[in-house]
Design brief:
31% of the residues are buried. This protein has helices at residues 6-19, 23-38, 41-45, 62-70, 145-154, and strands at 48-50, 74-80, 88-93, 99-101, 107-109, 116-117, 124-127, 131-132, 138-139, 161-165, 187-189, 194-196. The protein starts with 5 loop residues before the first helix and ends with a strand. The protein has a single domain (6-196), classed as NagB/RpiA/CoA transferase-like (Rossmann fold), CATH 3.40.50.10420. The protein is 27% helix and 22% strand. With 198 residues, the protein is an alpha/beta fold. The strands form three sheets. The chain has an eight-stranded mixed beta sheet. The chain is built from five helices and twelve strands. Bound molecules: ligand FFO and adenosine-5'-triphosphate (ATP). The site of adenosine-5'-triphosphate has 15 residues, from helix 5. ATP binds at residues 7-11, 138-146.
């Protein structure tokens, strides 16, 4: 019998949990998340932030994106790399950006060379996640996209802040077992808590 994959079991469970939230809970959560982010000096000082467009019950970042635009920050979104399988490119996202749907059904800006923002130019990256623990360990959708893309930068002493964002119900009660390729989050931000990497 095949050994059940613990990480995939966790993914199934926590994707179900976040998809079960009502529209009202989702809306409240993203407003609370915005308040949490606004209280962080790293966000206040950031000039370039990477967000994402939510899918599959993920916490919605649109209020944060609007806040960042209002404050004159550059907002980027992840785009699936056209040649480098499993990697992401961060692309400048404007109110009038031309969008297209990627193979996962997620909207992303149409790739335009002049809109590409190198990872080293980002000040804060907000990453989506499926589950997290109280030492700021992250479990994603299973594609390894963020791990692969951010691996080179996390080896350097650059001030980039990598934050996971999630609903409170995505927290695992016992710790997540991390794999050698999992990149550590500096913080996990939820509507009611901020967990820091220990
Ligand atoms: N909103 C959002 N954008 C994101 C991510 C994410 O997790 N959330 N990603 C984070 O890395 C990257 C895309 N990675 C993804 C990996 C798997 C699936 C997904 O839905 N998988 C389905 C199978 C879909 C299929 O194969 O057609 C599944 O597992 O059920 C989605 C996004 C970049 N953009
Ligand atoms: N830096 C890397 N180099 C090569 N392969 C990697 C790297 N990081 C992750 N992977 C591969 O990606 C696969 C998925 O990794 P993992 O389960 O940690 O993804 P995830 O963090 O849940 O997904 P995502 O970041 O897309 O949300 C693993 O099989 C792993 O071998």
């Amino acid at each position: 019998m095949p050994v059940p994959d613990k990480r995939n079991e966790l993914r199934r469970h926590f994707r179900h949990e976040r998809n079960n939230l009502s529209q009202a809970q989702q809306t409240f959560a993203s407003e609370q998340l915005l308040m949490q982010c606004c209280a962080l000096t790293e966000y206040q000082n950031a000039r370039v932030v990477a967000c994402y467009l939510a899918q599959d019950g993920e916490i919605v970042l649109n209020p944060l994106i609007n806040d960042a635009w209002l404050k004159g920050k550059t907002v980027c979104l992840p785009v699936l790399h056209p040649f480098c399988k499993g990697h992401l490119i961060f692309v400048h996202y404007r109110q009038n950006s031309k969008m297209q749907t990627n193979r996962f059904g997620i909207l992303e800006p149409k790739l335009n060379a002049c809109d590409i923002v190198p990872v080293a130019k980002l000040d804060v990256i907000f990453t989506p996640l499926v589950a997290f623990d109280d030492s700021a360990q992250r479990l994603g959708m299973g594609g390894g996209f963020y791990d692969r893309t951010l691996a080179p930068v996390t080896r350097h002493e650059i001030p980039l802040q990598i934050y996971g964002v999630a609903h409170d119900c995505q927290k695992v009660s016992s710790g997540l077992k991390n794999e050698k390729w999992d990149i550590p989050m500096h913080k996990i931000i939820t509507p009611s808590h901020i967990y820091s990497h220990t």
